[in-house]
Amino acid sequence: MNFFKKAPTVKEQQRQNDRELRKAGRDLERDKVALEREEKKLEMEIKKMAKEGNNDGCKILAKQLVQLRKQKTRIYAANSKISSVQIHNKAMGANIAIAGAMGTTAKTMGNINKVLNPHQIAKDMEAFKQANAKMDMTDEMISETLDDIMDESGDEQETEGIVNQVLDEIGIEISGKMANAPSVARNKIGNSTTDADKELMAQLAKLKS
């Protein structure tokens, strides 16, 4: 005898119960079919004896028929009880499965919480938001500083370059005009420069000031 035989689990026991209940139901079904065949035979015998006028024989067979039908009723009741137990057994199996699934789910969620650590995640998210805000502030300060530098140096250089370009263009134009203008040696003494030359000289003096 094996004293160390492992006890069946609840799920295994539930399956064993289901197998035994199905077997019991099949056995009762066979008994019921046999009783129904015997019932038909008794009914035919009773009719036969009734036609023959054998009242005593009819009474004996009628008593047997009554007992047989009572047995059939008990089989119906037993079958009903077996069906009810089968439903209960299946429900128990379903509840066990649900309980197991819930246990697994709870364990899995616990493991996830251990890995994720919601408090640490919230702390990290807050630190990230603060760091991001500081980064935005630093970026804005750098942009403003660069803008100030460009305003102080780049814009001034660009402005000076444009002025020089304009002056060069005007100078070239003035040189051209001056080359074509009559010189003092070629004009009479006392003659002044033209009005156009005076205007160009005034613009040049204004830009250089």
From TrEMBL:
Residues 12-28 have a biased composition (Basic and acidic residues). InterPro entries: Snf7_fam (IPR005024). One of its GO terms (biological process) is vacuolar transport. Pfam families: Snf7. Residues 1-28 are annotated as: Disordered. Belongs to the SNF7 family. This is Charged multivesicular body protein 2b-B. It comes from Papilio xuthus. The gene is LOC106115674.
